[in-house]
Structures are given as structure tokens and as C-alpha cells.
Design brief:
The protein has 201 residues and is mainly β. It has one domain (50-200): Jelly Rolls. 5% of the residues lie in helices and 45% in strands. It has one helix and 15 strands. The strands form three sheets. Strands 2, 3, 6, 8, 9, 10 and 12 form a seven-stranded antiparallel β-sheet that branches. It has a six-stranded antiparallel β-sheet with strand order 1-4-5-15-7-11, with no helix packed on it. It is elongated, with a radius of gyration of 29 Å. The protein starts with 8 loop residues before the first helix and ends with a strand.
């Protein structure tokens, strides 16, 4: 038998490494982990800087015209200035309603906290109210009445989801108009909502 050069231990080890089977281990997070429907990923985008839409938010008004000031979104706030335009006479409905709304994704059984600042301007004869609604219902503790809550302040309210999926959240500002010889008018106090955040409670 011919004794040739023997392979080194390093050579054998290197060869063995190439012959070992490779087992791929996939580590994947659950599909729902990054969903904004779940905590802690849930959040509410800020109001747009200006206009009537942006960041998923939209603004609508019904029941009369509004003049003077910015009725909609301004500087990242929701501003309702219900001063009369052209005399401020309503053609029919005695109540003016301004609404900022968007959809949010929630999970049944989870509790969510909404915090925001508010400022009321008390220079007109009739009060205005502001309320936060989620899924069509007023959130407890969110009502602001300019007669009862003059000046400014902050609110932090909670809401528990009874379903999973998209629901609408909205700030609803309402002014009940006063009848005059010219018709229904909406001269009223003003409300600004700002610094809005939404988190899992």
C-alpha cells in the first residue's frame, strides 16, 4: 500500500462543514403584530395643517353658512367659527353642525384613550358645544359647552371597542341658532380642538 500525504484535520473539518444539511429556520411575527388595529401600534394622526381634508381627516358642515375666520383645519387644529355670513340667516335648519371625522382601526375589547386641548371664545350670545363621538356614540366626558366651560383646558377620555375593524371618530361642534326678524342666525361662540393624541389606554 502506498502511503500518500494525509489530509490535515482542518481540511477534513472544512469538507464536513460543506456536507452538513442546512436547516432554514424562519422566524416570523404574527401577521397582526404591526397592525394599527392592535396595541401598542394604535395611534390617531394629527389634524391637517390647513384646509378641509388631510391625514385621513375630513371636514363637513351643515345647517347654515359660516363667515369670518377659518372654519375647518388651521395650524393642526380643528377650528369652528360660526359667525354669520351675509347676515347669518339660515334658510331652514335652526342648528348648525361642523364635523371633523376620520376612520380608526380598533380591536374588540381594547380600551383607547383620546387626549386633546380645547379653547372656547366667548364673544357671542349663544353657546356652542363640542363632543367626541366614536362609532356614532358620544364618548363619556368629552362634552364641552362654552357656557359651562369658558376659557380653555384639556380632556382625556377613554372608549372601549365592541367590535374589530374600522370605525369613525368625529368631533362634532353644534350651535343652536336663535330666531330673529330676519330668520334663524348662528352667531355663536367658537371652539378650537388641538394637540390631539390617541393611544391604547
Amino acid at each position: 500500500m502506498t502511503n500518500g500525504p494525509r489530509p490535515s484535520r482542518r481540511t477534513l473539518t472544512r469538507g464536513a462543514a460543506w456536507t452538513l444539511p442546512v436547516v432554514a429556520v424562519a422566524s416570523t411575527a404574527p401577521a397582526f403584530a404591526a397592525s394599527p388595529c392592535n396595541c401598542p401600534e394604535f395611534f390617531v394622526p394629527a389634524f391637517p395643517a390647513s384646509g378641509t381634508a388631510g391625514n385621513g381627516w375630513s371636514f363637513t358642515a351643515s345647517g347654515g353658512t359660516s363667515g369670518g375666520g377659518n372654519d375647518g383645519f388651521s395650524n393642526g387644529s380643528f377650528v369652528t367659527v360660526a359667525d354669520p355670513a351675509g347676515g347669518g340667516v339660515l334658510s331652514s335648519a335652526p342648528t348648525r353642525r361642523a364635523v371633523a371625522s376620520r376612520t380608526i382601526c380598533v380591536t374588540q375589547g381594547r380600551t383607547y384613550r383620546f387626549s386633546y386641548s380645547w379653547t372656547a371664545y366667548l364673544v357671542n350670545p349663544r353657546p356652542m358645544t363640542s363632543v367626541l363621538t366614536v362609532a356614532g356614540a358620544a364618548v363619556a366626558g368629552s362634552l364641552i359647552d362654552t357656557d359651562a366651560h369658558p376659557g380653555s383646558g384639556t380632556r382625556s377620555v377613554t372608549w372601549t371597542a365592541t367590535t374589530t375593524g374600522n370605525v369613525e371618530m368625529a368631533f362634532v361642534h353644534t350651535t343652536v341658532a336663535q330666531s330673529t326678524l330676519l330668520g334663524w342666525t348662528t352667531t355663536a361662540d367658537d371652539i378650537t380642538i388641538s394637540n390631539l393624541t390617541g393611544t391604547c389606554a
